[in-house]
Amino acid sequence: MYRKLHITVDRTRLKSRYESLKRSMEAIDEGKNLVIFPEGGIITKKDPVMAEFKDGAFRIAIEKQIAIVPVTIPYNWIILPPDEFLLRWHPLKVIFHEPIETAGLTLKDTEMLKQKLFAIIDDELKRQLQNEN
User: Fold this and answer.
1) Residue 6 falls inside a structural domain
2) What is the spatial distance between Cα 115 and Cα 91, in angstroms, rounded to a whole number?
3) Which DSSP letter does residue 116 get?
4) Where residue 61 falls among pLDDT bands split at 50, 70, 90?
5) Which of 49, 51, 110, 126 could form a disulfide with 39 if both were Cys (CB 3.0 to 4.6 A apart)?
6) In a domain, 27, yes or no
7) Which residue has the higher pLDDT, 131 or 44?
8) d(Cα 60, Cα 7) in Å, to the nearest integer?
9) Cα–Cα distance between 10 and 49 in angstroms, integer?
């Protein structure tokens, strides 16, 4: 079941990164939706600090000319601690932002698209944490 639902990637292996990109594009061609965590993991132990986004999700969206829906999960770092395999209980909140269209963008726009989505999610994350305090 896990293999049918997940496209895994070993970020240390170039071949694995290529294969996951290829499988993701095939999934899009099959009409499937993808959920991608472009930061590649949770890197913080306290209040979350987002990691720089990787290119893969944005390359896929641009090459396939499909919209990206940014999602902010403010308490993910509490529910899924970075150094543990155990889940912790915490009320879950998921914020879906307006879709960002990629129609007309080229791979030259990858960095701009990454920065735009990063800002949307990071601003919302900071707003949510500020409202909690």
Assistant:
1) no
2) 29
3) H
4) very high
5) 51
6) no
7) 131
8) 14
9) 22
Distance CA 99, CA 68 (A): 5
Q: Is residue 23 part of a domain?
A: no
Two tokens, residue 114: 């990454």
Number of domains in the chain: 1
Specify the length of the chain in residues. 133
Helix (H) or strand (E) holding 123: helix 110-132
State the amino acid at position 132 in one-letter form.
Answer: E
Q: What share of the chain is helix, strand, coil (3-state, %, to 5)?
A: 45, 5, 50
pLDDT tens profile 79-122? 776 666 667 777 788 999 999 999 999 999 999 999 999 999 99
In a domain, 29, yes or no: no
Find, among 72, 60, 71, 53, the residue nearest to 102 by Cα: 60
User: Is 42's pLDDT higher than 60?
Assistant: no
